Amino acid sequence: EGELGSSRNKGKETFGKISTPSPRTGKEGRQDNGEVTDKDDHLYFWFPLLAGLSELSFDPRPEIRQSALQILFETLRNHGHLFSLPLWERVFESVLFPIFDYVRHAIDPSGSSSQVSEVETDGELDQDAWLYETCTLALQLVVDLFINFYNTVNPLLKKVLMLLVSFIKRPHQSLAGIGIAAFVRLMSNAGELFSDEKWLEVVLSLKDAANATLPNFSFLDGGDFVTGNER
Predict the structure, then answer these.
(1) Burial class of residue 103 (count of CB atoms within 10 Å of its CB; 0-12, 13-18, 19+)
(2) Distance between CA atoms of 36 and 51, rounded to whole angstroms?
(3) Which of 12, 59, 124, 135 could be disulfide-bonded to 65 (CB atoms 3.0-4.6 Å)?
(4) Distance, CA of 192 to CA of 170 (rounded, Å)
(5) Tens of pLDDT along 99-157?
(6) How far, in Å, CA of 54 to CA of 98, rounded?
(7) Where do the structural domains in the chain lie, given as residue ranges?
(8) What are phi and psi of 78, to 5 degrees?
(9) Is residue 164 within 8 Å of residue 179, measured between CB atoms?
(10) pTM score of the predicted model
(11) CA 86, 88, 91, 94: dihedral to nearest 10 degrees?
């Protein structure tokens, strides 16, 4: 509940920073090219709707969370072509990314699962199951959304990569697997769209993930390691 409240407050802060619509805005609330700007009346309707659906995507009731997640991404798919880059930035930062913040806090990533496994109830295991399920689906949908609107949102690639790598770097095996699957999905479907600069961002993110997850072999350089022949 605390995490959801935090997400809600963050959405309100973002919503509060939206300036009032300009008197020069067209009656349809769009720029000449048809994109919705971040100074339109539209924002006063988009953010409460999208932020509310984002929170409901982790409702403990299966029918509620599934419907919320479906409607959230269908809304973005159907109307995303009208969004400007600044509006997409707000959507990613205040609507989509908080979904995964909630997951990372709800599932213990510290590797202490062995200590609590003896006292875990069926209800707690079920909760973990639907958190994984929802997180897997949501991450795939975020990747697909990024690919569909790549021409507009490509400047956000670095932030999307940071999200995926943050999962890959988790010591929690299931969360890391979710991140790897989403990373492969992004590379397979959007790789041909990347410029040399974007590929550099991808390679650097892979390097970051590899450095964070490779085993520590520093003990091999010490005197504590003795080979079979030396014995």
Answers:
(1) buried
(2) 18
(3) 59
(4) 28
(5) 888 766 666 545 444 333 444 455 555 566 777 888 899 999 999 999 999 999 999 99
(6) 8
(7) 1-106, 128-214
(8) -75, -30
(9) yes
(10) 0.71
(11) -40
